[in-house]
Amino acid sequence: xxxxxxxxxxxxxxxxxxxxxxxxxxxxxxxxxxxxxxxxxxxxxxxxxxxxxxxxxxxxxxxxxxxxxxxxxxxxxxxxxxxxxxxxxxxxxxxxxxxxxxxxxxxxxxxxxxxxxxxxxxxxxxxxxxxxxxxxxxxxxxxxxxxxxxxxxxxxxxxxxxxxxxxxxxxxxxxxxxxxxxxxxxxxxxxxxxxxxxxxxxxxxxxxxxxxxxxxxxxxxxxxxxxxxxxxxxxxxxxxxxxxxxxxxxxxxxxxxxx
Length: 259
What we know:
259 residues, 9 helices
């Protein structure tokens, strides 16, 4: 998105406006978001209000404000859920109820069931929550075989779902509130922090000469063998670029020596 980066770096507002028109024509929702929700002064060079004593504080304020909004929106969404699971997992599990109908299920022992039918049969362990199809094991969401086994065992399918997919865990994830840090004048900073002097990191002096481009091989690592000349037998060059006047003592005799 070249127009966006060009708009960021423009020094004059008229140049910035031209790139914003390009963004608005191609991505109207992005342009509206950048102008109304973010604000030009927070990302555009020509709209920057000027130097501030602590610009990182303003950056953190913007991050906190955005995170607080996200957390609150997701909390409201979680409170409005009427199903036991989150909407995405509920929509994934629901079709499996219909798909499990008509499958032949037989009990192998008190916790293990053999489910036949469909493209793949499966052996389900409802106690350890596993299935030979591996979907149940990895996703922690009952597969078609596990749904059929749960119906045969008269066990609730939702009891086999990982608790991380439930509405309760969704609410817990966004249960905390992100509060603003308040004005800097109201900060309670310990004296030992105020007195602490933070020095810049030590910069090593750059060595003279061309920097090293190759590294030392690790243990068990072998470097690629260099090219060997077919004329003189030395390594590091080809026969066409060989400057040697004598031929190789190995293999075929050199062409410049009469036989």
